[in-house]
From TrEMBL:
It comes from Streptomyces prasinosporus. Belongs to the UPF0309 family. Residues 36-220 form the SIS domain. This is UPF0309 protein GCM10019016_069320. InterPro entries: RpiR-like_SIS, SIS_dom, SIS_dom_sf, SIS_GmhA/DiaA_subfam, UPF0309. HAMAP family: UPF0309 (MF_01240). NCBIfam families: PRK02947.1.
Length: 251
């Protein structure tokens, strides 16, 4: 029997979205995993970026038990997360022209690296310019976005383009415009955002694919273990030392 409570409806909606990305994005997930594995095998470094709540999925990849140790967070002051005060400043900074280029030119990214850019709408200047500029530097870009926004919103970049238009690979989260899964007659606005659940799962599927792809090539994937299991700190110490020149969250 179906659970028609708001909680049950939200969980059903999230499950439906996860099944959709599993089925519809399987080829893109495989390609993105292969791209990251190629980068690691070729000596490149991995970076992830997201603004506002999109940063949550990016942060989930970094220094993560069960994740690749080489994934670094590309931080943009005032944008990565909602800890900036006032919180609305982060949204404003996403629309500032030129910020992405300044960040990338001051970052350790270089030719041969890979950058995962997470932006639900993909319409703001920051993710668009970040993808464009990263590719001019020779960095391969994986965009994670809801492609539907390009059909139902106006780009905030001068070019009129979206994140999806400037990536080597695009993963479509399938999130509806507005990021709210539920409505009730007595609630004036839609509610129940599912983008974090879906985007995080989508990216962890990519990371799992990358780890397995490296193992298939005879390369031990540089995975971290939980520091809360016996031997975890020792294991992580070995990995961090071995790949220290490709890890930037320790400095």
């Amino acid at each position: 029997m179906s659970d028609r409570t708001p909680a049950g409806q939200f969980l059903d909606a999230a499950i439906d979205l996860l099944q959709r990305v599993r089925d519809e994005e399987a080829d893109a997930i495989a390609a993105a995993g292969a791209l990251l594995a190629d980068t690691v095998a070729d000596g490149g470094r991995l970076f992830a970026f997201g603004a506002g709540h999109s940063s949550l999925a990016a942060q989930d990849l970094v220094y993560r038990a069960g994740g690749l140790a080489l994934m670094n967070l590309l931080a943009v002051p005032g944008v990565v997360g909602v800890d900036v005060m006032p919180a609305t400043l982060g949204s404003a900074l996403e629309r500032v022209d030129g910020l992405a280029a300044a960040v990338l030119d001051s970052s350790p990214l270089r030719r041969g690296d890979a950058l995962v850019i997470v932006s639900l709408s993909g319409r703001n200047a920051l993710p668009v310019e970040m993808a464009v500029h990263a590719r001019t530097l020779g960095v391969r870009v994986v965009g994670v976005t809801s492609v539907a926004y390009a059909d139902h919103t106006t780009s905030r970049h001068a070019s009129g383009t979206y994140l999806k238009d400037h990536c080597d690979l695009v993963l479509d989260s399938g999130i509806a415009v507005g990021d709210a899964e539920l409505t009730l007659d007595n609630v004036p606005a839609p509610f129940g955002p599912a983008s974090t659940v879906v985007t995080t799962a989508l990216l962890q599927a990519v990371m799992a694919t990358a780890a397995a792809a490296l193992a298939d090539r005879g390369i031990e994937p540089p995975l971290l273990r939980s520091g809360n299991v016996d031997g975890g700190h020792e294991w992580n110490g070995r990995v961090l030392e071995q790949y220290g020149d490709r890890i930037f969250y320790r400095h």
